[in-house]
Amino acid sequence: QKEVEQDPGPLSVPEGAIVSLNCTYSNSAFQYFMWYRQYSRKGPELLMYTYSSGNKEDGRFTAQVDKSSKYISLFIRDSQPSDSATYLCAMSGYSGGGADGLTFGKGTHLIIQP
Amino acid sequence: NAGVMQNPRHLVRRRGQEARLRCSPMKGHSHVYWYRQLPEEGLKFMVYLQKENIIDESGMPKERFSAEFPKEGPSILRIQQVVRGDSAAYFCASSDRDREDGYTFGSGTRLTVV
């Protein structure tokens, strides 16, 4: 079993729809959870950064973490064609200063149809 | 703030040559991380450095790969005697000590070995 599982898609939805992206993980030591957006041939761009379980909202984006189920989600409201990209979940088990690298999912390719 | 700067953006090397990839972290960030992204694969952690110290190199191949982050100047990822399997996108990320804002990625260096 891979540490982080993420459906690669592609996921195609009409403009204005609510998008739901998710990842499951197996390592219970993960405490910090992130979502990145990556446009083709560009670097990942941090969208959301959460610690432990709970919800976090930022504009049209909402991140949810359920540590008991080892499941994280990213919701995008009022989706726009400019949201079309690959969305990567990432997680780590250490706080600042620790020896740690992020573990990424493979990414979900999202297409918003105009 | 120029963000994380990586250069070159594209690098072509013949088999057996050396590749040097450079990364300047964001202003105020003292932690640098290198990741590799192979085609159809997720981002894989390689190494985590602070100034003049390698903190975690658990993701680095044992041979031909090395990294440094000197007191002055950018972090360098060095690949000796490159092979075709080294062709990938190499991303650098940086963070502050407490990672309060997560990790910021550069635009990457795309290495092609011919």
Structure description:
- The complex is a heterodimer of chains A (114) and B (114).
- In chain A, 0% of the residues lie in helices and 53% in strands.
- Chain A has 114 residues and is an all-beta fold.
- In chain A, the strands form two sheets. In chain A, strands 2, 4, 5, 9, 10 and 11 form a six-stranded mixed β-sheet that branches. In chain A, strands 1-3-8-7-6 form a five-stranded antiparallel β-sheet, with no helix packed on it.
- In chain A, strand 4 and strand 5 (45-51) form a beta hairpin.
- Chain A is globular.
- In chain A, 37% of the residues are buried.
- Chain B is an all-beta fold and 114 residues long.
- Chain B has strands at 5-7, 10-13, 19-24, 31-37, 43-50, 53-56, 65-68, 75-79, 88-95, 104-105, 109-113.
- In chain B, the strands form two sheets. In chain B, strands 2, 4, 5, 6, 9, 10 and 11 form a seven-stranded mixed β-sheet that branches. In chain B, strands 1-3-8-7 form a four-stranded antiparallel β-sheet, with no helix packed on it.
- In chain B, a hairpin with a 5-residue loop joins strand 4 (31-37) and strand 5 (43-50).
Helicity level of chain A: under 10%
Tell me the radius of gyration of chain A: 14 Å
Strand content of chain A: over 45%
Average pLDDT across residues of chain A? 90
Structural class of chain B: mainly beta
Mean pLDDT of chain B: 92
Number of strand elements of chain A: 11
Pair of chains with the largest interface and how many residues each contributes: A-B, 26 and 34 residues
Distance between termini of chain B? 36 Å
Largest sheet of chain A, in brief, is: 6 strands, mixed
Number of helices of chain B: 0
Q: What's the story with the biggest beta sheet of chain B? A: 7 strands, mixed
Portion in strands of chain B: over 45%
